[in-house]
Amino acid sequence: MHHDHSPRSGHHHAGKSSERFLDKELILKELAISPGQVILDAGCGNGYMSKEFSHRLNHTGKVYALDPDHKSIDTLSAETQGTNIAPFLGDITKTTPLAAASLDLIYVATVLHGFDQDQMSGFAAEIKRLLKPKGILAIIEIKKEPTPFGPPLEMRFSPQELAQLIPLIPRKTVDVGEYFYMQIFENNS
Fold first, then answer.
1. pTM for this predicted structure
2. Sheet holding 180-186, edge to edge
3. What residue spans define the domains of the chain?
């Protein structure tokens, strides 16, 4: 049976450890966050990027922090009370409670390589549903080359492979750390 979730729960913690390898300043600069935006941090883990986004929005807009892990969401909810961060439990490969065409930016860091084909098509459908016209999807993944850690190469995606899978327009790919790249897509409709 292909629906064994053990690799995903296992890879969940790997995502948290990648924080120190990412150039957060560069990521934030490339995302050009502006006041009033509505952002989804999908697979937020401990929420370190949700907090950065919130800071950049300066009490305007909204940051939805989504994660399938109860503990992460409970902790983040306690830490972010009274802020514009709204943590909730969920899965970006399924329909979320968020309204259609409501998001300016969806940020997904080191999550996709854990997806099987069904999850990938669910993800593609949901981001398409959630993004506003001209909305941005930013995907951070580990490079598809030998690195000292990370999933096996055959589980990883190159930017070219992602562009085949994501139903949006690829705009640019940027190195955001020695082992990571960020690919930015734009919703064309």
1. 0.90
2. 85-89, 62-67, 38-42, 103-109, 131-142, 180-186, 169-177
3. 6-186
Q: What is the pLDDT along the chain (189 residues), one digit of tens a residue?
A: 444 333 333 344 444 557 889 999 999 999 999 999 999 999 999 999 999 999 999 989 999 999 999 999 999 999 999 999 999 999 999 999 999 999 999 999 999 998 999 999 999 999 999 999 999 999 999 999 999 999 999 999 999 999 999 999 999 999 999 999 999 999 986
**CA-CA distance, 19 to 131, in Å (whole number)?**
25
How many Cβ atoms are within 10 Å of 167's Cβ, its own excluded? 14
Q: Which CATH superfamily is domain 6-186 in?
A: Vaccinia Virus protein VP39 (3.40.50.150)
> What's 57-100 look like in SS3?
HCCCCEEEEEECCHHHHHHHHHHCCCCCEEEEECCCCCCCCCCC
One-letter amino acid of 158: S
